[in-house]
């Protein structure tokens, strides 16, 4: 039985994630653990475009508590698990630390994985790719790491 950790948040509903999971599942018995970092709301791609304020040319920045990030991440995780299980995939997962390296560290505690797959936004938008997350994960966990970027948003 091969075990995979899939690291994703904003890309949990992507066709690329479903494709990479079903492709690996087709190679033989497999289990998938979705690691969903609770990305702060201010860092989500939907917030990339700033809303100009009418005064002083600043940007509108509304505070979002960490609980809101966890709530959004849990809703995405639940939907992704439903989609994967409907496709016949054995999958589970958890919402974890906002930092993706610490999130995987939490997931790995007490588990072993044959591969870590990082599913990101398109490279030009992906904070994780700009932070060199796949290489950092490979160096830290000593397992193969595959990066999969979604199509343009």
Could you explain the architecture of this structure?
Helices cover 35% and strands 20% of the residues. It is α/β, with parallel strands linked by helices. Strands 3-2-1-4-5 form a five-stranded parallel β-sheet, with helices on both faces. Helix 3 runs parallel beside helix 5. The radius of gyration is 16 Å and the shape is globular. 32% of the residues are buried. Residues 46-53 have low confidence and may be disordered.
Q: Gist?
A:
The protein has helices at 15-25, 66-86, 100-108, 127-130, 133-141; strands spanning 2-7, 30-37, 91-96, 115-120, 145-149. With 153 residues, it is of the alpha/beta class. The termini are far apart.
The helix-strand sequence is: EHEHEHEHHE
Strand content: 15-25%
**How many beta-strand segments?**
5
Strand order of the largest sheet: 3-2-1-4-5
Shape category: globular
Q: What ranges have pLDDT less than 50 throughout 5 or more consecutive residues?
A: 46-53
Distance between the termini: 34 Å
Radius of gyration, in angstroms, nearest whole number: 16 Å
Q: What's the tally of helices?
A: 5
Q: State the helical fraction.
A: 25-40%
Furnish the topology, listing elements before pairings.
Layout: E1 2-7, H1 15-25, E2 30-37, H2 66-86, E3 91-96, H3 100-108, E4 115-120, H4 127-130, H5 133-141, E5 145-149
Parallel strand pairs: 1-2, 1-4, 2-3, 4-5
């Amino acid at each position: 039985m091969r075990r995979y950790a899939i690291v994703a948040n904003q890309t949990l509903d992507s066709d690329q994630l479903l494709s990479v999971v079903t492709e690996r599942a087709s190679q033989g018995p497999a289990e998938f653990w979705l690691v969903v970092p609770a990305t702060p709301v201010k860092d989500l791609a939907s917030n990339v475009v700033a809303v100009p304020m009418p005064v002083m040319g600043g940007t509108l920045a509304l505070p979002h508590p960490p609980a809101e990030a966890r709530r959004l991440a849990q809703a995405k995780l639940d939907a992704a698990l439903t989609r994967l299980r409907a496709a016949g995939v054995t999958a589970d997962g958890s919402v974890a630390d906002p930092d993706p390296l610490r999130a995987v560290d939490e997931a790995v505690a007490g588990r072993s994985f044959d591969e870590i797959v990082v599913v990101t936004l398109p490279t030009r938008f992906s904070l994780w790719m700009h932070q060199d997350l796949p290489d950092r994960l490979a160096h830290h966990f000593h397992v193969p790491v595959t990066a999969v970027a979604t199509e343009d948003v």
